[in-house]
Specification:
Elements lengths: L3 E10 L3 H12 L5 E3 L13 E2 L9 E2 H14 L3 E3 L3 E5 L8 E5 L3 E10 L3 E3 L5 H5 L5 E2 L2 H4 L7 E5 L3 H13 L2 E5 L9 H9 L3 E4 L2 E7 L6 E6 L5 E5 L2 E4 L3 E3 L30 E3 L11 H23 L6
Helix pairs in contact: 1-2, 1-7, 5-6
The protein binds NADPH dihydro-nicotinamide-adenine-dinucleotide phosphate (NDP).
Length: 321
Amino acid sequence: MSEKIERVKTLILGSGPAGYTAAIYAARADLKPIMYTGMEPGGQLTTTTEVDNFPGYPEGIDGPTMMVQLQQQAERFGTEVRIGMATAVDFSNEVGGIHKVTIDDSIVIEAETVIISTGATAKYLNIPSEQRLRGGGVSACAVCDGFFYKGQDVAIVGGGDTAAEEASYLANICNKVTMLVRKDFMRASKAMQHRVNSLPNIDLRYNSEVDEVLGEQVVEGLRIVNNKTGEKEEIPITGFFVAIGHKPNTEIFKGQLEMDETGYLITPGKSTKTSRPGVFASGDVQDKEYRQAVTAAGTGCMAALDAERYLATIETPQEVS
Ligand code: NDP
């Protein structure tokens, strides 16, 4: 296969708040960034409804609109945004070395600096009945698929902010939402818990886990089990939503960049530097603690500043004494 090769100063992988903020800063610093959006242009926020906690939007803003605006802002300063997915990487170990990133198995980008903002992907329970019925009533995105279950009975599993937010969203559309939390408490913030508790059509079940998703072609019900008593119960539902957290998108960086035991890229201290010089990471791919749009944007800014400083040092070699 003939490969197209292109040389750039700064390559940005991923198009969530981290990637776009890195792009805005990198473009303004004249690093002429090229961004590849990845499989989900706009990132996770395109699957959310209202973003109420990003500073500067007193009335809130819906996720997809926010991401379009971020893209426009990045493009205004000269970022080239391209649809495409990094499929292989060959990062240099040398300061000033050139990093090679293959896009869609066909284009090789040679980059002086790379900013990784590839984010994270939704996790599933990974039980056979759930996997079999994905696309047949099992979904990991209430905002994307909730509409299909308008007026019906659904269930959601998870006890974090995502589950609480999605349960509230579903409660507005659906007849009844059964929410399954495996512990006897929710991990979600107090504000989100309050929202869940205030909605009369959310049936919150603690100590409850999914035993099996019922149905042949489409979801028809759920067998749940109380993990304290062992008691099983079948509930009729047509939609089953999984909201149990995310996995960082770092598969292609394995063996090249240092990661923790759960696959998050390691960026020591206050910097966005990875274990290879000139390769930086920002957003959810390196942050399993805060994982907010605003913190992702903050680290995107840091990554662009780190890239700019790195390029300044290699373009102005230190005098040897
Ligand atoms: P979290 O990791 O915070 O929560 C995951 C939830 O899923 C936990 O309740 C966990 O249970 C449960 N869980 C995990 N695995 C299983 C399993 N196999 N079976 C049943 N339950 C399971 O993920 P979130 O996606 O909710 O949130 C991620 C981050 O994003 C958090 O920092 C959150 O605050 C933030 N966020 C903020 C929002 C906002 O501010 N508007 C909206 C959404 C997310 P257990 O507690 O027992 O481990």
